[in-house]
């Protein structure tokens, strides 16, 4: 099986929806392919994070009816609601958001509390990347390899920033789950310290430029329509140097 045939099947493979013979053929391809294998692993992690992190709500009758109608149209080969990037998993995540907001539940919280929760979630994601041996989905020091890897996997396009000359080696990148959405994370090393740079849409009223939580520092800045959240336990001086170098290189 070749990549052009394997890629359209990845969502169904992760959802265990492929026939046994087709699943076996795809599994053989994934075991050998340096592109499709990591992409499938990222989809599986995203699926697992959604299951762990997303609150559980019973969908309203109208929404359940719409989902059933979409599934029937899909089974019949008819048009369905457009789904970008990550296919079924992204669609499932968007439905979870819709149900949560429509329910008037706990996601409708104050802006300040949302920002505090976001800070904690970013630190938790940073720690998971260190403890679970999931620092990167694409491991490369070449920005021309890391940046294109995110294309089609997320709506956000992180810049390719090479800071080797400034003492910050690019390790690679990965997809992470923040507030129920897949977001890019760029990974750098500053000596023995790891710096994760999460790329999210720029938001008004975001936390200040520097926040310290649980022994970790978060630096936040905005360039254009993208917001950057860098997390590390590097020293304040080293972290500040990294932020200045990144902003200059990214045009901010």
Present the secondary structure layout:
Elements: H1 3-6, H2 10-14, H3 20-32, H4 36-53, H5 61-75, H6 87-103, H7 111-131, E1 138-139, H8 143-149, E2 169-178, E3 181-190, E4 193-201, E5 210-213, E6 216-223, E7 226-232, H9 236-249
Antiparallel strand pairs: 1-2, 2-3, 3-4, 4-7, 5-6, 6-7
Helix pairs in contact: 3-4
The CATH level-2 architecture of the largest domain is identified as 2-Layer Sandwich
Shape: globular
- Helix and strand composition category: alpha+beta
Helices and strands, in N-to-C order? HHHHHHHEHEEEEEEH
Q: Helix tally?
A: 9
CATH fold description of the largest domain: Phosphorylase Kinase, domain 1
In percent, how helical is the residue content?
A: 40-55%
Strand content: 15-25%
Describe the structure.
With 252 residues, the chain is of the alpha+beta class. It folds into 2 domains: 3-103, no CATH class; 111-249, Phosphorylase Kinase, domain 1. Helix content is 45%, strand content 20%. It contains 9 helices and 7 strands. It has helices at residues 3-6, 10-14, 20-32, 36-53, 61-75, 87-103, 111-131, 143-149, 236-249; strands at 138-139, 169-178, 181-190, 193-201, 210-213, 216-223, 226-232. The protein has a 7-stranded antiparallel beta sheet, with helices on both faces. β6 (216-223) and β7 (226-232) form a beta hairpin. The longest helix has 21 residues, at 111-131. The N and C termini lie far apart (44 Å).
